[in-house]
Design a protein that fits this description.
The N and C termini lie close together (8 Å). It is built from 5 helices and no strands. Helix 2 (30-51) runs parallel beside helix 3. It is mainly α and 134 residues long. The longest helix has 24 residues, at 109-132.
Length: 134
């Protein structure tokens, strides 16, 4: 039985976080947009796993999709999106993530657009699978 309430709770946070990422991108905060896009996709995959009654651990979207793929067919391009987003989990947040300079100096609009589009694809997939699980 699909736990719609838990799914919606996590997916709501995913969509909220993605809207925040889009606002950051529009304001030029590209590193934060990338990190938040990662977070949004992570929350979305966890939403589906929790909805399916599967415990979700960790922060790697790729690893979460590995777990999910044991239950549903996950398109290969979503794994590509997950790998891209996973690279934005730590570097945007830590001043010592790069050999010199601040993390925000290493991110541009193209990075943010790519991350947000990857997150949108994962969220759309999660929503489709959940709708079919009813």
């Amino acid at each position: 039985m699909f736990d719609r309430e838990e799914f919606e709770r996590w997916l709501s946070q995913a969509e909220y976080t993605l809207r925040s990422a889009e606002n950051d991108m529009k304001s030029g905060f590209y590193s934060w947009a990338c990190f938040k896009a990662q977070q949004a996709a992570e929350y979305a995959v966890k939403a589906l796993l929790f909805g399916l009654g599967i415990m979700a651990y960790g922060h790697s979207i790729k690893r979460l999709l590995d777990v999910l793929s044991k239950e549903v067919d996950v398109p290969e391009e979503l794994f590509d999106s997950a790998r891209l987003l996973d690279r934005h989990y730590i570097p945007p947040r830590y001043p010592d993530a790069y050999i010199e300079g601040a993390p925000h100096e290493y991110y541009g609009e193209k990075d943010a657009v790519e991350a947000i589009n990857s997150s949108l694809a994962i969220i759309a997939f999660v929503r489709r699978v959940a709708d079919e699980a009813q």
